[in-house]
Every structure is written in structure tokens, then in C-alpha cells.
Amino acid sequence: MRWTRLAASFLIAAAALAGVTHWRASAREAAAEAAFPPSGQFVTVDGLRLHYEMSGSGPDLVMIHGASGSLRDLTFALREQLTDRYRVTVIDRPGLGHSDPQPEVSLLAQAQAIKAAVAELGVKDPIVLGQSYGGAVALAWALDGGPRALVLVGSPSLPWPGTLDPWYRVTSTALGRAFAVPLASAYVPQSYVTAATSAVFAPDPVPPGYEAHLGTALTLRRQTLAANTAQVNALRAELVTMEPRYPGLTLPVELVHGSADTVVPLAIHSGPLSKLLPNVTLTVIDGAGHMPHHGHSQTVIDAIDRAALR
Q: How far apart, in whole angstroms, are the C-alpha atoms of residue 2 and residue 208?
């Protein structure tokens, strides 16, 4: 009887915790979406709604954001420095920002969805910029055919030694995501998100107003967390299969990487990649971290302009 009572108490406590967690996560998601509603429009491809913004005039430039982010990262400051000479399309990757999640989380599936979406908008043979994880999506796009040129900013491109951090290891299985994602969505404080943002930018500072513009609360929604963790956990295995195909990419490629990037280290990714690609320029920004498109935006803009000329 004692064990029966203990088991019943445990089940009641677990049910109560699950209920409170669902309520807190739902309330936080509603508040985040009210504070940061869609800023652009939607295009539908095979039943998948993708959220995008298009502005400017000139040759087409498509920009793809990194992990745990949204198109807001690229509209904070970079885009407005480009619309005088490019038609710039920024798009939320599937499952992030305000775009629907895909059943298939691979780089190729995301690249094909984005490629089809921008084609619906009249974009043809664009220059494609990818930042961080978005650069891996851009590489998958190039391997599938289409871009005029690539600009990869702090992008993972080659398999790395070791394992991902504990959050991604915990969420590497469906069971782990089922437990960890709702708890994180409901209880992770904003102070933790602020500290994580600072770590991603380090040693560069986070620009004033960046977090408010990005809408970091959007990253804690359960759908976003689930999509992001599934995508990142699948990344290394996909890069293993992509690496042997890089020497066949003859389009112009501009690589921009910070020498102090500890999130996606130069020595593991853009450095070796520059030796595999036949038509590549590598620009290393001394002392820069993982987000050079903010603190060193002119270097990134110069790379885009070179890609357009090449």
C-alpha cells in the first residue's frame, strides 16, 4: 500500500508539473508571437508556408539565417546597407521564425523549399548568402544547382571532431526532445538567453537593440526549439556526405570568417573548405567572432559585391 501511495503521488505530481509546464509554455509563446508578429509576407510551396521579406532593386540576393534565429537577424542592420543595389530576399528557414516546420529537416530539404519559394517570387539565379547554419543550407542549394554565387559567413561546412554541447545531446532523440523542449520553453529565463547571445557574439559585443529586434522570445517556442535541435543534430552527418562533392562546385564562393570564432572554428570549416573549392576567396577577419555581419558588416558587404562581379 505504501508503494502504491508513493506511485500515485508521483503520478499526480508529474501530471501537475506537465500541466503547469504546458500552461507556462503556451503563455510565453502567445506573448512572444503578440510582441513579434510576422513582419513580411508568406509564400506557399507544397503546402509549406514560408515567411519572407523582399526589398530593394537590382540583382537578386537571397540571405539565409543561422540556427536558433530568424530573418530578423539579417534585417537588424545588414539588409538596409544592400537594398540600394540588390533586390534582397530574407526568409525564415522551415520551422523557425514564422515559417512552417518540415517533416524532413535535412539541409537539402530546406534548400529545396527555399529555392522553390523564391522562384515563386520571381527570383532567378540569385547570389545566396548564408550565415552560420544558413551557410550549410546554401552549400546544399549549390550542390543541388541554382545560385550564381555563394557568400558564406561563419558557416559550418565540414564534419567536426567531438560532440555537440549537452543541450543538443539531450535533444538528439525524440524522447529527449519530448521532455527537454517543453521544460526549456516554459522555464528558461531571459537572462540565460541574453548570456547565450553574448557568447555567440564574443569576443565582439552584442549591438545595442539587437535582442529587442531579434525577438529572442520567439526562439523559445516549442516548435522552434524542436525544429532547431533536430536540424542541428542532423548537421554533421549531412556534411560528411557533402564534403566529397565540394571540388565540383565551380561557382564563385566568398568565405568570410572570424579568426576568433569559437562556435564554428575557422580552422575546422572555412580554412580547409577554401582548399577544396576551385573558385573561392577566403577573407579572415582578425579577432572577430561568429557574427561578423554585425560588427564587421562592411567586410561582408564587400564579399557580396565581389561575388556579384565574379
A: 58
